[in-house]
């Protein structure tokens, strides 16, 4: 059906006959049996809500994003869900850049129908202010490699991305309760979407010979087959959508048989998706804990008052900004590992560090060894002192450093990240005598 | 909201297994090679077929079969609120694709290589079931144009509301949020060529609904055959036979 464009690849008659004849003996060209799926791999990106799915040679990416928008007039209490597809020209010689082609629109609509009409994603929980502001969830599906059966892969990618997407928490504030405050992820954990069930798309290919039918056709089989059907079913036995857009006619019996097969396959795929999401979630949780401890280590033993303040700022990004000192002390109580040496190094380096990357100069002078010694000396008793909550004593011991302190918590959060990065990058440039200790600190800290 | 009253009557007074009144007319567009108007209740659709004719875009020419093109559009005045974009939106693109592939299954394209057949379908009044009406109108128009087909393609929709399978939904029943199943069959061969369904349904109920829609399709097929026979008689009469 894609044989309309000049750029398209045309299949030879020999190839076509070979595929059909092999199927008559229940063999497929890639060695599968007619009702087998190809190997499925689900990977996730580093941000929440992005997934990459490989189904055999077919490679698809899905990204989920959310925005606060006005709801539709007919449904003021519900959030919206929109699916956009991008058939990248690198995926297939017949894909052209520009307007989505018929098949791109069709794919988007099949995935959309499976998710929206079957109420897989709970849209009522996406409402923030009825009639005014709701979360508009946008799923972007990018096709990277067309190895056949894009619909199934795109559907799995969309589901995986939806399951790992986290939207910022928002609360109503202001005098009349009409102001919406969106909390940044550093302040409050973003929350996942509510997904009731997973509609899995299973595509069947029909051929001119009635006895042949395949599941998960490859690109070559797609060029041979005369009809196809995509059944979106969930693991509970409900049929969420059926899409058989014309093509070869089939019996009722065959249709029902296909639906039952689809139900079985959906169970398998649902299990795989859930496993992959589980692994991702545990990794994410681990990452969060790690980040927490490394930023805590920053201020433990914070002898230089200014740097201590800077770290307070950093901590302030994770907690509400009210009382820096109390927070700092509470953070120290929570402090996990970090030996004294590491803290020294960190302090020393952080003294040097002034705000964002623009102020990082690889050729600037190294940490002042005198300062270091001073911090080393004062470091032992310093932890106990700071735990008591008083900073002023330690302040006197260190020459005050000019530190550009970013005001907003998000910038401080950024600075913290850059702080960590700046340390490792700087370490790479620093002369060797400093490097050993720093390397230890940077390795254990990051 | 109650779609089936306790007595078993729907909102427009029909029984659950009852179709709306159908009416068809052949030869509505004089310049086209074949055309037809098809009405299912308040849904009114006009289809025009041009072809077989020379392929306009040489790069798309196929040496072994005819090229089928289809365009589905809804008139601005067809729905309750005036539509801003009659065609080019995603729903129209999808329906165009669906109608094209449905008709491709029944047209004997290998008899007309290197040629093009255009099917234009326009919805004049939309009251649910536009997809089905378009396919029925296209079948009539193709028959009027004398294009060789394996069989007629007829289509009908069915739904499931208030635990009852309902045949031939109108707009109110369609927008109720329940399942909507559109079936297109080749009646003589008894094969399902088009099947689209949205919203959730358990498999066994789906089977009943699909069966019901298939029955509706067969009723439409009988009517279309009558219309075509009548049309042929008229042509003979005009020829003076």
UniProtKB/TrEMBL annotation, chain A:
Per UniProt, residues of the Exoribonuclease phosphorolytic domain are 37-168, 197-263
User: Which portions of the chain have biased composition (kind: Basic residues)?
Assistant: 431-440
Name its cellular compartments.
Answer: Cytoplasm; Nucleus
Cited InterPro entries: ExoRNase_PH_dom1, ExoRNase_PH_dom2, ExoRNase_PH_dom2_sf, Exosome_comp_Rrp42_subfam, PNPase/RNase_PH_dom_sf, Ribosomal_Su5_D2-typ_SF, Rrp45
Q: What keywords sit in the KW lines?
A: Cytoplasm, Nucleus, RNA-binding
Q: Could you list the residue ranges forming a coiled coil in this record? A: none
Q: Where are the transmembrane segments?
A: none
Q: Where is the composition biased (Polar residues)?
A: 310-321
Return the annotated region ranges for Disordered: 297-356, 372-446
Q: Where is the major localization of this protein?
A: cytoplasm
Where on the tree of life does the source sit, at the highest rank?
Eukaryota
Composition bias, Basic and acidic residues: 390-405
Q: What PANTHER family does the record point to?
A: EXOSOME COMPLEX COMPONENT RRP45, EXOSOME COMPLEX EXONUCLEASE RIBOSOMAL RNA PROCESSING PROTEIN
Q: Give the family this protein belongs to, as stated in its UniProt record.
A: Belongs to the RNase PH family.
Kindly provide the name given to this protein in its UniProt entry: Uncharacterized protein
Q: Which organism is it from?
A: Stylosanthes scabra
What taxonomic classification does the UniProt entry list for its organism?
Answer: Eukaryota, Viridiplantae, Streptophyta, Embryophyta, Tracheophyta
UniProtKB/TrEMBL annotation, chain B:
Family assignment?
Answer: Belongs to the RNase PH family.
Checking InterPro entries in the record gives: ExoRNase_PH_dom1, ExoRNase_PH_dom2, ExoRNase_PH_dom2_sf, PNPase/RNase_PH_dom_sf, Ribosomal_Su5_D2-typ_SF, RNase_PH
Look up the signal peptide feature and give its range: none
The gene for this chain is: RRP41_1
- Which domain of life, per UniProt? Eukaryota
Q: Name one Pfam family in it.
A: RNase_PH_C
Record domain Exoribonuclease phosphorolytic: where: 18-148, 151-216
Protein's UniProt name? Exosome complex component rrp41
């Amino acid at each position: 059906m894609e044989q309309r464009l000049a750029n398209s690849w045309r299949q030879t008659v020999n190839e076509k006959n070979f595929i059909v004849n092999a199927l008559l003996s229940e063999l497929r060209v890639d060695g599968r049996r007619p009702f087998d799926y190809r190997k499925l791999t689900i990977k996730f990106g580093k941000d929440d809500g992005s997934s990459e799915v490989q189904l055999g040679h077919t490679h698809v990416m899905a990204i989920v994003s959310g925005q606060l928008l006005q709801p539709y007039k007919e449904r003021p209490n519900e959030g919206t869900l929109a699916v956009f597809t991008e058939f990248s020209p690198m995926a297939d010689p017949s894909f052209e850049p520009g307007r989505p082609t018929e098949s791109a629109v069709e794919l988007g609509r099949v995935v959309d129908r499976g998710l929206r009409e079957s109420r897989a994603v709970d849209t009522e929980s996406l409402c923030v202010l009825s009639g005014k502001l709701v979360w508009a969830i946008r799923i972007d599906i990018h096709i990277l490699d067309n190895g056949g059966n894009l619909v199934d892969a795109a559907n799995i990618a969309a589901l995986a991305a939806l399951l790992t997407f986290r939207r910022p928490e928002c609360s109503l504030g202001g005098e009349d309760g009409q102001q919406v405050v969106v909390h940044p992820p550093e302040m409050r954990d973003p929350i996942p979407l509510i997904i009731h069930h997973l509609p899995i798309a299973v595509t069947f290919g029909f051929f001119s010979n009635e006895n042949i039918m395949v599941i998960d056709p490859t690109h070559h089989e797609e060029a041979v087959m005369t009809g196809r059907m995509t059944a979106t079913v969930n693991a509970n036995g409900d049929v969420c959508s059926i899409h058989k857009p014309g093509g070869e006619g089939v019996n009722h019996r065959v249709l029902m048989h296909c639906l039952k097969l689809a139900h079985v396959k959906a169970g398998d795929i649902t299990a795989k998706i859930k496993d992959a999401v589980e692994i991702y979630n545990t990794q994410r949780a681990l990452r969060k804990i790690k980040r927490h401890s490394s930023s805590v280590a920053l201020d433990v033993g914070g002898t230089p008052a200014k740097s201590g303040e800077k770290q307070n700022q950093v901590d302030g990004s994770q907690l509400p900004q009210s009382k820096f000192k109390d927070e700092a002390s509470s953070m120290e109580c929570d402090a996990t590992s970090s030996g004294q040496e590491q803290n020294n190094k960190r302090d020393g380096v952080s003294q040097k560090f002034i705000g964002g990357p623009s102020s990082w100069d690889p050729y600037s002078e190294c940490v002042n060894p005198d300062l270091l010694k001073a911090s080393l000396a004062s470091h032992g008793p310093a932890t106990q002192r700071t735990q008591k909550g008083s900073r002023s004593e330690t302040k006197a011991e260190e020459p005050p450093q000019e530190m550009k302190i970013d005001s907003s918590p998000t910038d401080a959060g950024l600075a913290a990240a850059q702080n960590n990065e700046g340390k490792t990058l700087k370490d790479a440039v620093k002369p060797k005598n400093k490097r050993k200790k720093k390397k230890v600190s940077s390795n254990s800290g990051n | 909201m109650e779609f089936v009253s306790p007595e078993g009557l729907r909102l427009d007074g029909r029984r659950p297994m009852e179709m709306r009144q159908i009416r068809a007319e052949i030869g509505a567009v004089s310049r086209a090679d074949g055309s037809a108007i098809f009405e299912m209740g308040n849904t009114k659709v006009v289809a025009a077929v041009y072809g077989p004719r020379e392929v306009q875009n040489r790069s798309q020419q196929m040496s072994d079969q005819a090229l089928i093109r289809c365009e589905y559009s809804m008139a601005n005045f067809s729905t309750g609120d005036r539509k801003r974009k009659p065609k080019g939106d995603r729903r129209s693109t999808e329906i165009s694709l669906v109608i094209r592939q449905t008709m491709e299954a029944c047209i004997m394209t290998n008899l007309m290589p290197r040629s093009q057949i255009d099917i234009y379908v326009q919805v004049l009044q939309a009251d649910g079931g536009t997809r089905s009406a378009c396919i029925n109108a296209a079948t009539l128009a193709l028959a009027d144009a004398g294009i060789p087909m394996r069989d007629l393609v007829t289509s009908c929709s069915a739904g499931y509301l208030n635990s009852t399978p309902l045949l031939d939904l109108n707009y109110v029943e369609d927008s109720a949020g329940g399942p909507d199943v559109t079936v297109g069959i080749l009646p003589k061969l008894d094969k399902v060529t088009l099947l689209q369904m949205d919203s959730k349904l358990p498999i066994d109920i789906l089977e009943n609904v699909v069966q019901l829609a298939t029955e509706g399709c067969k009723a439409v097929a009988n009517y279309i055959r009558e219309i075509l026979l009548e049309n042929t008689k008229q042509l003979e009469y005009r020829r003076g036979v």
